[in-house]
Amino acid sequence: MDAVRPRYATTHDPYFEELTKRVNAYFALPGRSRRAGPAMWRKSATLVALLVGLATAIYSGRLHGATFVVAFIAWQFVQFLTTIGIAHDATHGAYARSRKVNRWIGRIFDALGIDSSHWIANHLHSHHAAPNVPLRDSAIESFSLVRLHPKTKGRHIHRLQHWYMFAVYSLVTVFQVYFLEPVSFAHRVFGFRREPGWIAGLARMLAKKLAVLGWSLVLPLVVLSNPWSEIATGWLLGHMLCGLALGIIFQTTHLHEGTSFIEPDADGRLPSPFAMHVLATTAEFSVENPIVTWIAGGLNLHVTHHLFPSVSQTHLPALSRIVRQTAREHGAPYVHYSLWGALRSHVRMLRKLGSMPSPGPREAPRLSWSAVLMKPSRFLHARTEILMQASRRHGHVVRLPSLGTPMFVATHPVALQRMFKDNADNWAKSEEYALLAEWIGRGLITTEGELWASDRRILSPAFHGDMVRGLSERIEESARAMLATWTQDREVDVSDEMTRLSLGIIGRKLFGRDISPSLGEIGRLMTVCQEHLTRRMLMPVDFGSRRFRRTRDELRAIVARLAVHPGPGSVAELLSENGFGHEAQIDHLVGFFAAGYETTATSLAWTVFLLTKHSSVQERARHEGGAFLRATIEESMRLYPPVPCFGRRALADDVLMGFRIPAGAKVIVAPHVTHRHPDFWETPEAFDPERFLLPRRNAIPRGAYFPFGLGHRFCVGRQMAMLTSEVTLALALEAFELQPGNGPDPSPVALIALRPDRPVAVRLRSRDGERRVARDPAGKCQRSPAGFLVAS
Ligand code: HEM
Hints:
It contains 32 helices and 14 strands. Strand 8 and strand 9 form a beta hairpin. The protein is globular and about 85 Å long. The chain is α+β, with helices and mostly antiparallel strands and 792 residues long. The longest helix has 32 residues, at 582-613. The structure holds protoporphyrin IX containing FE.
């Protein structure tokens, strides 16, 4: 489930206005703070005393049999109370004033085996942001055994879910700690989006799980003389009690007979303002029962908690009365139950959900012909603008105007997950790749099935780990050679410069030696082929095909000549060692050139352009290098993804986010649109590299960022591209201050790559005398303390 922020209706809400006034008046009284006060400190001290007391009793060795088991269960239950009673408040910023203190207290989650950042992402950014909004609220996420909202497919077993749901709840903590989190981590790492630093992340997560299993189960087994069955029973029943309590507290308040499941419209807007949405989707129970409130950490007063999440639980009973009173006066739909009433209503709701018919797929909203025909020039120059317009106006899956083959654009991570992961076998590459094959033949980009899988197995190691890291000196040499031609106060077209640079670097990787003399010609031929294909993609008629074929053959002849004596460790050598035939070798080599040079060059050109416009970011990237420099490149590829859109073809009927996609339809996915969508990004148009640094990085919804593609067809050249960009930028920033050149700013044009429509002019101001990089006697760049030469 993705942490997607919905937009609530902004219509005037007299209820919430009055409520806020009354709540402010409540806190205006002297000595009242929204954060924890004496009552909360007393509760915290009581819980700590109970934890210590029970641990002492358990480890004293004097408890045996049923008494021991009961004490062990109680010990775990008090841990649970501490988590929902104290840590939960802290993660909402409701415990201490200091964010740091709240963060530390929030780590109680980690101590008990629940990853706190995972919890925050799910609970705050998903559940609190969109309670009971199907596909957005992680708390009603359904799986094969349970159906918690009507927008998910119904199965026969769901008709019985009201009978077994409490058993499911009782296993929820064990399941969450020891299964769900590792699986979701593995999913992130091995599937949809591989993140930098994943090995360290995996090691940290496994260490945490082992540590928790160690202190909660293995330690008592080793230290205590009680039979293992007593310890294991106490451990398991303790977890079951906690899971049951968790399910009752959280689920009864949202899944009851008076609740609603609210869907956003095609633009992602919810129909009601925030407070009305909360009242329609949430209930409270045992509102005047202080014992239930103490045990539930105030979460039985769930409406009030959702309306005022950063208020300490000790104030919730008083605020709940205000919420109720104000609702009564305004006729607002406030719902509350007794504990027993909440349980009964929950069971009835589960039964109702279990027997609801499955939602059928709907027809996707359409972008009208007039939207395209009003400005036909857009079709040629800014296809991404049309895709952006379709997505903003009509939602995340939109049918585009087309003759013949139905065409759609899909921009939501849930739809992408379906296409590239869950049902990837149903999605082949779109017909543009067949056109591309006329140029690059049967390379990795254009083939499918067995041939692709076996070629990728053989070739991808050449672009990973040491095989790429070993290239960093060559990259540095090439970048230095380029920078040596840059001089003070000159204006350079970085787009041009970076194109030549990346052609040279890829040439070195492919042939294992410097191919500078051939670069000019290769670049020229590549451009002719590319322009021809771009025209072919936009127009049905094949003008200039003879010239194209001649150019293509010339290009292949040069590549064939260069591949005759490949250098050690080169891709050409790997191809010939693995018995690839002559034609197949040339196909792959031309394919790598085509896939890598323009993408890397445009990424570098846009990054430099953005840095000239944001001098403080430029300074920080120069000083810090390392993670910040990488974040800068990633942020630049968010705003200007070098591959702005690419397509797939449905082999059989499919459904994307409830919309029917017929067999044969083409679906365009558009990083350019998803990367700038306000549902997934705060201030999406701003250049803000910090969003790619931890901890903010964790809040990026999975699948909302994919400049290098998705799923098993993920770009093989990512590491190489990132290394090229990092090394080049680090050296350029050391040598020059990059200032905007004369003339208007370039705009992106979506051809195959997202090219700038005019030269990216940059004025150079030399930094001689203030260089930070130490040079060794051979004049080579040494690793700076910030480590800017580190490849991810
Ligand atoms: C910033 C630079 C780059 C970007 C943004 C980029 C982007 C992408 C994207 C979006 C795809 C997926 C296309 C699809 O699924 O249809 C892809 C695939 C591919 N890229 Fe890159 N790329 C870059 C650099 C490179 C480099 C340097 C190379 C190699 C020299 C390379 C080689 C490939 C290959 C061979 C594929 C096809 C992979 C497969 O289907 O198995 N790319 N790239």
